[in-house]
Backbone:
């Protein structure tokens, strides 16, 4: 299994995806095809945390008046399943590894995974 969960309207996602050969990867645009509970549970198994998958930059946080500090793991899971913008993206998922988000360290780890040494 090799899947990438991304948002097509996100310039950062498109920029990151363009760096890699994703020919044999399943590309999932999460607005058109939201993540399933089963997929979220797979991600959780690898990260050990729904919080690690949660985007603190989602506009839905302010719109819903959410207090991030008061959220439980159960809350994070429910929110992740409820609205696509809560997923930190992109998420690259294989049988053995997961790469979550667009921070510099994650993108560098992806480059190593794909064998790009620039």
Residues:
């Amino acid at each position: 299994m090799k899947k990438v969960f991304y948002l097509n309207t996100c310039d950062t996602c498109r920029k990151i995806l363009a760096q890699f050969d994703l020919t044999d990867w399943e590309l999932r645009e999460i607005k058109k095809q939201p993540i399933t509970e089963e997929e979220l549970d797979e991600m959780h198994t690898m990260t050990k945390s729904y919080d690690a998958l949660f985007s603190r930059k989602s506009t839905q946080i302010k719109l819903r008046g959410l207090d991030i500090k008061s959220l439980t793991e159960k809350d994070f899971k429910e929110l992740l399943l409820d609205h696509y913008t809560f997923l930190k993206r992109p998420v690259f998922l294989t049988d053995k590894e997961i790469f979550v988000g667009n921070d510099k360290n994650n993108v560098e780890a992806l480059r190593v995974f794909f064998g790009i040494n620039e």
About this structure: The domain at 3-114 is CATH 3.40.30.10 (Glutaredoxin). The chain has a mean pLDDT of 96. The chain has one domain: 3-114.
